[in-house]
């Protein structure tokens, strides 16, 4: 009986030892992955991906055949839907707040967008289908319940720059 008890106790401790070791290794690996993701985000933030809305980027700075999208969302319930058809595009979207929505459906030769939403329940809808022109949009929404809608683009409205502030305001641009 002494041998049986000793064998059972030994097996129990061996099993317990390996179970604890395996569990500890999985937690360590998970934490290292989380730290790696944080490091990558910090690196992206430090490399100049911060909103600069002072000037519209010159057409010559957008290389042909390059399409980039940068989305930064801080808050909850923020949504971005983007369907872009272009030879080259540079899209930068920053959402800071809650329940902000952006929907972009655009076809153009070159597309540049710099959109900043700061606040709650702001909305951007941008539909434009003219594959023969280059379009640029700079938009700042700083407030709550701000709505911007653009339908179509032409030579007069291909370069737009707006700053919306306050509460419950709407801008609608229709150009065909």
Topology readout:
Elements: H1 2-46, E1 67-74, E2 79-85, E3 88-98, E4 101-107, E5 110-120, E6 123-129, E7 134-144, E8 147-151, E9 159-167, E10 170-174
Parallel strand pairs: 1-3, 2-4, 3-5, 4-6, 5-7, 6-8, 7-9, 8-10
Low-pLDDT windows of residues = 20-60
Q: Give me the Rg, rounded.
A: 26 Å
Strand residue percentage: over 45%
How would you characterize the largest beta sheet? 5 strands, parallel
| Helix and strand composition category | alpha/beta
Oligomer state of the chains in this structure: single chain
Q: Based on DSSP secondary structure assignment, what is the total number of beta strands?
A: 10
Q: What is the count of DSSP helices, taking H or I runs of 4+ residues?
A: 1
Distance between the termini: 93 Å
What portion of residues is helical?
Answer: 25-40%
Rough shape? elongated
């Amino acid at each position: 009986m002494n041998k049986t008890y000793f064998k059972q106790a030994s097996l129990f401790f061996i099993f317990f030892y390996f179970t604890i070791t395996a569990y500890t290794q999985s937690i360590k690996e998970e934490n290292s992955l989380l730290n790696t993701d944080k490091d990558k985000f910090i690196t992206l933030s430090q490399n100049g991906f911060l909103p600069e809305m002072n000037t519209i980027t010159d057409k010559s700075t957008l290389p042909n055949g390059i399409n980039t999208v940068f989305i930064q969302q801080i808050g909850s319930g923020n949504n971005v839907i983007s369907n872009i058809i272009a030879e080259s595009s540079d899209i930068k979207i920053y959402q800071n707040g809650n329940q902000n929505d952006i929907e972009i459906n655009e076809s153009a030769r070159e597309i540049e967008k710099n959109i900043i939403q700061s606040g709650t329940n702001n909305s951007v809808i941008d539909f434009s289908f003219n594959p023969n022109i280059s379009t640029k949009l700079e938009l700042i929404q700083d407030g709550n319940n701000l709505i911007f809608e653009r339908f179509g683009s032409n030579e007069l409205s291909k370069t737009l720059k707006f700053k919306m502030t306050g509460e419950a305001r709407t801008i609608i641009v229709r150009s065909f």
